[in-house]
Amino acid sequence: MDDLEKAILISFDESGAIDSVLKSQAVAYSQQIKETASICSICIERLRVCNIVQVQFWCLQTLHEVLRVRYSSMSHEEKSFVRNSVFSMACFEGIDDKNNSVRVLEGPPYIKNKLAQVLVTLIYFEYPLIWPSVFVDYLPHLSKSAAVIDMFCRVLNALDDELISLDYPRSAEEMAAASRVKDAMRQQCVAQIVRAWYDIVSMYRNSDPDLCSGVLDSMRRYISWVDIGLIVNDAFIPLLFELILVDGLPDQLRGAAVGCVLAVVSKRMDPKPKIRLLQSLQINRVFGLVAKDSDSELVSKVAALLTGYATEVLDCSKRLNSEDDVGVPMELLNEVLPSVFYVMQNCEIDTTFSTVQFLSGYVATMKSLSPLREQQLLHVGQILEVIHSQIRYDPIYRDNLDKLDKIGIEEEGRMVEFRKDLFVLLRSVGRVAPDVTQVFIRNSLDSAVASSADRNVEEVEAALSLFYAYGESISDEARRTGSGHLRELVPLLLSTRFPCHSSRLVALVYLDTITRYIKFVQEHTECVPMVLAAFLDERGIRHPNVNVSRRASYLFMRAVRLLKAKLVPFVETILQDTIAQFTTIECTSKELSASEDGSHIFEAIGLLIGMEDVPLEKQTEYLSALLTPLCQQVEASLLNAKIQNSEESPAKIATIQQIIMAINALSKGFSERLVTGSRPAIGLMFKQTLDVLLQILVVFPKVEPLRCKVTSFIHRMVDTLGTSVFPYLPKTLEQLLAESEPKKMVAFLVLLNQLICKFNTALHDILEELYPKIASRIFNIIPRNGFPSGPGSNTEEIRELQELQQTLYTFLHVITTHDLSSVFLSPKSRGYLDPMMQMLLYAACNHKDMVVRKVPGFQSFVIETFATNCCLYSVLDKSFEFRDAHTGNDMEALKLFYRASCPRTPASSGNQNFVHQRVLALCVYNIPVVIPWISRCIFPEAVSLT
């Protein structure tokens, strides 16, 4: 080996045994050689004498790169030398007719593919103007050996991949080149190539089926743009079908022949000649093949052929206008559809998806037909059968899906995606043939109940899923009234107890389906007891699977919202079934992530017993039966923590957390008017509960989940108890303010905003005490002059501070817009006014978020409202005295503030377009203090005002 060959071998080495420095030197040396003017000669010489495949690949790759980059600058002699050399290699000839020349075609497939790529690059630049005979010259060499035929196929495939195929994005230049090549080939050599394909397949079909498969695969690529008469004739079509139908041939060869027939079927043509072509194929000859081994590659290809054939027939029928023209396509369609249905039920998923698209198109053609013909009704039933079979889970995943382990999660996710198109098809069928669809669902449910134990789970789940998905195809009115067979189907669903109801999948889809048709129950009150039983027994909230139980709680809450008035007679029964189960809450650490779901049953119960239709004594009894045991659990945990002087375990904390959520959800059913007006005894019970839960902040001040849940409950009680909550606020707010971390301060300010919006000036005294403490803490942790920017500035800590800043702006705005701005002027707070205004004005001019800065309509407000009232009407007041020094100073301040508020140029950002609305509100509600301050702040040179 010479130095270049050694360098190439080192460059390609992936063993890790080569020193990295040496490898870098080898790569650099190889690249240096690649830049030399004689590189083409160097590569071809190496290809002639070297049998090392790495060297051969490097030489061919280099030739390919040089041709693509330097072709236009190459000399005529160099181009001719490369052309002749590459063509000789592709034809299995020595480059210089020496017997010792290395034959590249004897190399591995990737070497031959790279040689084909080089030859196609020459064709791109030179065919047909410079090198018009490339294909014609190649054909005589095909008789040499199978290796040359194989190479010719690789060249055709590379030409398709690199230039012709529309499966890849092409530039305008490439599109023009592709048209040039195809036009020249059509005129010059396509007929000869097709004849060569026929001769090769006829000759080698028995002796070398792999070679024939390669020829047919190449041929398939070209059928879309060659003259179809060269393929569809009395010679080639019989040969293709003979290859397909002979059992003794390998599946690969038979599948390649199927691919060619599919290419013929898919050929773009006008509808009438296309129908004649499809009719002439006599496609029914291959129907029997799909009944064989459904996992074989041949059956998969035949399935694709039948789907493609049916799709093309359907497309032609849509493009034909007259009734007479449509007759033949419909006959062909009716002939192929049974096999298509069989294909969809038994063949691979990829084929099934294309089949679903075809069936959706077929169903769409029925929309204009009313009523459907007998044949079409039969097809609708077959389509429903196909859908039902396809959406069934494989029983081998039953345990995985029930436990929902990793395999179960993956399979459930896969099936959810797979079912989407099938359910779209189902809904289309349901709209076209609702009666047929409902009868099919009824029969599926009956069949599922009667199915054997080893198939029961999957059969029932599929039948219920059909019923659930079908609900999307019918209107709310139809679901409400129970049109058609729904009047029988919904009661059947509610009354049926499936043997496999313990299965997670079955239980979940059963509950979802009931919920989808709950409006039917609203109109048919005789079904109410059945609905309650389904939600409250082992099919629902008592199901052994906790995920099913919690889902049942959520769906029951939704049902209660809709049926609330009709459930009053059943409140006692419902509570008897639920109180004992849900008032003793015990969490394990495994349940923490899903703890939120457990509160929905309490919201449902609250909606029921919170109605004024429930008598006061019963309402009190029910509420006490719920609140008392829950509060006792909390009190016991608090007492235990005090005695042991330590925090509870994570499981105990989670239990308290869930109890708070339960009581919170329960209270949603009670209105402020009821608990503070007509039935204050109910309000007293919630106040006693609030007393208990507020102790959590004292005993567990550092436990963030409990702090959040208690804060949420306080929010709830503000809306529920109204002013009755006032006695609890000072101590509670002081307790919450004990923590000054940004996230906790955000939650605290949000609570204060709710209180201010709810109670307005009634909160003045509380706010006057709290504001100095809030301001002191916030001004100590929020930067006065904005946040850092650049790398490393987007930290969690910075984001929390930014959120606190935004919440503070809202807090200040809420104060000023609820007549509480005098808080800023109180003796304890006055010292924070200047830093507050400094921070607000800085943010108004410099905040990164333009939404924070921009205030639409500020200029019009200043001119129409502020200037009019403060600069005009105030001057007309009798108390205004121009000769008074204080008046003059105020006039100057007003003038300066007005100037500051209006832009000097349209592009000015100034203090007009981007002044934050919080600043505006503060200015308006604090005129006596703000005007002198703004004049000093914006125009320091202005006269000093005190």
Write up this protein.
With 946 residues, this protein is mostly helical. 70% of the residues lie in helices and 0% in strands. It is built from 45 helices and no strands. Helix 5 crosses helix 6 (109-126), helix 17 packs parallel to helix 20 and helix 33 packs across helix 34. The longest helix is centred in the middle third of the chain and has 29 residues, at 616-644. It is extended and about 105 Å long. It starts with a helix and ends in an 8-residue tail after the last helix.
Which structural traits does this protein have?
mainly alpha, extended, 946 residues, disordered C terminus
Query: What's the helix count?
Result: 45
The percentage helix is: 55-70%
Radius of gyration of CA atoms, rounded to a whole number = 41 Å
Strand content: under 5%
**Oligomeric status:** single chain
- Flag low-confidence runs: 588-596, 896-946
What integer is the average pLDDT?
85
Which overall shape is indicated by the principal axes computed on the Cα atoms? extended
- Structural class category: mainly alpha
End-to-end C-alpha gap: 96 Å
The main sheet comes to: none
Strand tally: 0
